[in-house]
Amino acid sequence: MKRLTFAALGTSMASAFRKGDDRMPADESRTLEEGKRRRRVSFAIPARAGHHAKCPEVGMSSQGLSRRNFLRVSAGVLGSGLLNRSLARSHVPKARDRRPNILLAIADDQSWPHAGAYGCPFVSTPNFDRVAREGVLFTNAFAAAPQCSPNRAAILTGRYIWQLEEAGTHSSNFPRKFPVYTEILESAGYMVGYTGKGWSPGNWQVTGWKRNPAGYDFNQRQLEERPTQGISRIDYAANFVQFLREKPKDRPFCFWFGGHEPHRPYERGSGLRLGKRPELVEVPGFLPEDPVVREDILDYSLEIEWFDQQLGRILQALEEAGELDNTLIVVTSDNGMPFPRAKANLYEYGIHLPLAIRWGREVRGGRIIDALVSFVDFAPTFLEAAGLPIPREMAGKSLLDLLTTESGPQSHRDHILAGRERHSHARPDNLGYPARAIRTERYLYIWNARPDRWPAGDPTGSGEPEGYHDIDSSPTKTFMIEHQNDPHVRRLFELGFGKRPEEELYEVCGDPFCLRNLAEELAFESVRNQLRERLHNLLRQQGDPRELGTGDIFESYPRYGQMRDFPGFKEQGKYNPKYQR
Ligand SMILES: [Ca+2]
Asked: I want to staple 358 with a disulfide (CB 3.0 to 4.6 A). Which of 131, 156, 325, 367 is the partner?
């Protein structure tokens, strides 16, 4: 595969991100070239704890860009000739000659800054970067849940997890009654398939589905060799080619490429062994600075690169089939990195995810969009692109206007919502850790509905030595448990593993690692109160059982994954009668 030069651009942008103190509006789309030349970006690439990017100042627009700077940027865009193009073709025509194919490429457990296009210095993702360069790079895309199956269900249904009953909890079942975009497209004549990880983990058969909600299974083809023991044997690209071969020529397709990477377990030391450099790793501020952690992050980054290489092979197959430009391609992840205070947490590194979208000539390429977008927006986007009506039950909002409107400030939504219920079997009686969050451009407000419970799972009682089972087993987790009383680990251990107050508030533009809870600080009282009220109003409107006083129903839902030796209810695949209504 041809080596692309976009990674070099990403690196140069990375230094701009760190130095940048000048801001673009969050809802302003801009060109990558523009970003490169002017060296300005609107989001803070994470730096070590204590090094905080500036938040927008008073007197600037709410998006953080002064009127004067906005005019300068507009002039730059005009000078580049891009604005002229956009005026000539400002909207996608509604009626298309051919219905587009839909390709969703979704990694497993990759946090948002960890792609070359975002300036990450320790991962190389030329194919993600290509999609971003030839399409659009999103800097503020948010999962509906920080866990595999709940967020995947939100993608498929365009609904929030509190609207999905069993599918709102991890590794449960998927009620048959919820319409999913793959099925709507199939009814409209699309051929629908997936390779790798579809809607998972969980049991879809038990509720009457005849196939995985992500599509028909294409997982037969396997690799003869794989670079590490942690990487899946499934040959994603060969399975995609098989899918294309089986597809009748006159039918459009909808395909889900669900990489198993960078989900754990990793082959320990594989990053180092295959030449990754620990000194380039930027350890997020919520993790301790230690070689064990750096090497763990290297193993993670190696798997991100594997996913990206397979994406490259799939793009090549699309090109060879002559379908590249007639395919709406979405590249993203399902939740954040599998480390303490990231995956399964409503903090930035749990729900803020990478996203790039390409769609031939329908979406002008080379732009960065800072607008807030939610994963519940994907299903309506796919349906609208296919010329189909969007069911009323879908809570998301199509991204097509945002993608196809080329000039001027754009807005999509002024907040995103996310939530979590049960993750692993991590507490007595198979209880979960219910929490909800609202994220605006500047703030993240979290409501922990049961602060009496352990957010990462109970420390003991599982019959296993380590505890905290909502954190995936890993060298980093073990290191933090073993060193929890060391001075440089103690506070981070408390943040990642300890109990939390009912309310948390973070000013994420300056605190991307969510280390300083402002919820009890007097200066932020009115911000907290406003966000609290907004969140609860929205949840009430959407019928969230946690808001309506019937939230215990989530504790009743079956879990089909591994059960541990905690006291109380522990029957795999069964409803807990104690919490059924
Ligand atoms: Ca995942």
From this structure: 131
